[in-house]
Amino acid sequence: MKNIFTNKRIFDASTAASGGFVWNINRDKVVTVLSPATVANMVCGFDVLGFAVEAPYDIMRIQFSNQPGITIINEDDFQLPVEPEKNVAGAALLALLAEVPIPDIGLEIRIRKQIKPGSGVGSSAASAAGAVVAANYLLNEPFSKSDLVRFAMNGEKLASGVKHADNIAPCIYGGVTLIRSIFPLDIVSIPAPELYVTIVHPQIEVRTSDARSILKQNVLLKDAIKQWGNIAGLVAGLLQSDYALIGRSLEDVLIEPVRSILIPGFHEVKEKALEVGALGGGISGSGPSIFMLSTRRDIAESVAQEMKAIFARIELAHHTYVTSINPAGIRVIES
Question: Percentage of the chain surpassing pLDDT 70?
Fold first, then answer.
């Protein structure tokens, strides 16, 4: 396989083994992506449901490099590893490049994270998914969205020890996604009505791996049946724009009772949010962030005020976001 480098182009006349893709790559292309935060689980849908939000998001810029391999440059203060095999974006890119039939290819990626690691709103997923979406665009899009989820899950495995896609899938597909299966990967996009999202991020860290380690490995059949009913009800409510059904289905009898002990003020936040009109909500991902869904922005703003008051009273630093479901997922800007 011959690879020719010029000032303007990288060209490889071979085709991808799966589908006849012709690799004809502009070496001068530079791509920036806005990779959004995501809310995983959606209360009752542990590891199978998630949605993307409009804000916050990470900003990532990728281009070809004359140096083979992956070069990571952090443009924030989180001091994340720059070695590709130790960085979630790098792990995802390594998986992608393993299926690119161009030898000695080099990529440089600059990452400015605005989603704090350990916040529970898909920080690792934003980095991993943003990296592979940007690289795919740089390579003239040889890979499908399903492929990109598969690559990005390697970043999630590095972060949590488990390949899961409930943050990755909505980040890449946008909107609400259902992960019907991981092996084989089967992702279903779920149309959803317009919903507003209020998120509070208490300034404590809950590591995904730690939050998984405290979960029960066995559950009662009656609890499993109730959980299945809530998942089915939530999906039906979203498809039918049935807000009352959505609200009734935002209940978790398996995960939330265990994980909520890690989050100060959790139960009061839920109670007050419901009092001012929120449909419901719960722990975002593994926490510590808490999200609530509302039908109107003014209700979402009132929920934010209640959240601020609670965390101010218990003297815990926090950030709040009032945003909405992001139907597009990662946004690509070519420069």
Answer: 94
